[in-house]
Amino acid sequence: MAALFSGKVLVANREEDEVETERELVGALENKVLLLYFGSGQCPRCRQFSPLLKDFFVRLTDQFYVERASQLVLVYVSRDETEEQRSAFLRSMPRRWLALPFGDRFNRELELRFSVSEVPAVVVLKPNGDVIVGNAVEEIRRLGPACFRNWQEAAELVERNFRLAEDFDDPARRSLTDPIRRLKYKLDKKKKKEGREEEGEESS
User: Fold this and answer.
1) What's the pLDDT tens digit per position in 90-108?
2) How many CA atoms lie within 13 A of 73 on its CB side?
3) What are the residue ranges of helices labelled H in the chain?
């Protein structure tokens, strides 16, 4: 996914830090589902949807809600008319959001590449840049954080045993494939452990 932003600059929300070196981009984007949020703080539809997206993102990445932060990153692709409007909007959004610098021509390139004609739009991408969902706005409205499991499986991410905190209280909300994923995770973990033990025996 870092290849999509190769040579570009991403800015951390409400901070001066820039994510621009290849190593930083790889660290921020690799092995994660990427959301490209095309929106504007002045658009009435965006003002209705953005709080939902904020809650969606927080519930998947904040330790208060999840056992382990999900493999999810969001880049805001602004249609705001001024930098002040863009900054005001981002101040109300999660700190973990990334954004392209205001006025960056790459905003328009992304709109054309992913056929975004109106906002709000949320393009969901695999780590290799393939599209999982062309516009997930309605899916996020309808399913909330639960739709991340579908994206995670579609993206074939390296397993991180993702579970919502609420799953501990309500087993019925778990995915049907959850036991299989957890078994796979345990088997992979066991293989790695056995491999390390064999290496230790050989070295001794």
Assistant:
1) 999 998 899 988 989 999 9
2) 22
3) 22-29, 44-61, 83-91, 106-113, 137-143, 147-155, 178-203
- Provide the CATH number for the domain formed by 2-155 in this structure: 3.40.30.10
pTM of the model: 0.74
- The SS3 assignment for 116 reads coil
Tokens of 130: 């393939």
Q: What is the pLDDT of residues 111-128, one digit of tens each?
A: 999 999 999 999 999 988
DSSP 43-92: -HHHHHHHHHHHHHHHHHH-TTTBSS--SEEEEEEE--SSHHHHHHHHHT
C-alpha triplet 80, 35, 182: angle, nearest 5°? 160
Classify residue 5 by burial, with Cβ atoms within 10 Å: 0-12, 13-18, 19+.
buried
Q: Name the nearest CA neighbour of 80 among 53, 50, 121, 41.
A: 41
Side-chain half-sphere exposure of 128, counting CA atoms within 13 A:
5
Q: Which two tokens stand for residue 127?
A: 């780590």
Which structure tokens are listed for 175? 């995915």
What does the block give as tokens for 204?
């001794």
Q: Per DSSP, what are the bridge partners of residue 75?
A: 36, 98
